[in-house]
Amino acid sequence: MNGTWTTTEIAGRPADVYDPANPPRLAVLHLHDADGQTLRDRPAFTRLFDELGLGCVCPQGGPSWWVDRACPGFDLPLTPERYLLDRVLPYFGERWGVGPPGIGLLGAGMGGQGALRLAFRHPKTFAVAAAVAPAIDYYELYGRGTPLDEIYDSKEQCRQDTVPLHVHPSHAPPHLFFAVDPDDPWSRGSDRLHEKLSALGIAHEFDGGTRAGGHSWGYFERMAERALRFVHAGLVQQGRRLL
């Protein structure tokens, strides 16, 4: 590891931040899974941040599902989505002078669906997104005593807020990658999203065949290289469009 991980606060919430050896021109916003674990102490990702010269910010969102709704335990006068847009994004500029379109999204599980939702809802801000094992059909957890029972009024309301319902055929982010282990219980949601995007002619890359332990860090780390190289290539391409 040539760079440094530190823990800081962004608008009163903790975040793990990776500074590569040289000030980055491109960076990644990582959204964590339901376990709250960031990419700190994950060498498979850190090695690639070093090699590709990427900064990374991993904010803590708790069990918020990164949605644009009030969430229990998210003690800010902002929804989790607005926190990312209004507080975390400006932090990239303050720390490194980096802003859209130089910031790519990366997420796993809960954060994977969050990254995809955010990219489809704000494609001009996030042109590049990669999701590993995204829990797209999280509405299936509604009614099981999770925070989703307080975030939404019904299972159907929750379903209406999932990634496929935010897909717009003419306003999609140009660089999308998502992958899921076939043994992951969330795999069907990714399969359906792939089918929908293909039917609409929306460009994307999808890997639904690689097996590496189901919904686990073993799988997340197996897909680290492909996901981060995709993000880096997309960010470089977006940067060239502005020249």
Rounded mean pLDDT is: 96
Query: Are there runs of 5+ residues with pLDDT below 50, and where?
Result: none
Strand content: 15-25%
Strand order, main sheet: write it out.
1-2-4-3-5-6-7-8
Q: Could you please say which CATH topology applies here? A: Rossmann fold
Shape label: globular
Q: What's the CATH superfamily, by name?
A: Alpha/Beta hydrolase fold, catalytic domain
Domains (count) = 1
Number of helices: 8
**Cα gyration radius (Å):** 17 Å
| CATH class category name | Alpha Beta
Percent helix: 25-40%
What does this molecule look like?
The mean pLDDT is 96. The two termini are 32 Å apart. It is built from eight helices and eight strands. By secondary structure, the chain is of the alpha/beta class.
List keywords for this structure.
globular, 243 residues, 8-stranded mixed β-sheet, alpha/beta, 8 helices, 35% helix
Element layout with pairings:
Elements (H helix, E strand, L loop, with lengths): L3 E7 L2 E7 L6 E6 L11 H10 L1 E6 L20 H17 L6 E6 L1 H12 L6 E5 L15 H4 L3 H5 L15 E5 L7 H14 L4 E3 L9 H6 L1 H18 L2
Parallel strand pairs: 3-4, 3-5, 5-6, 6-7, 7-8
Antiparallel strand pairs: 1-2, 2-4
Helix pairs in contact: 1-8
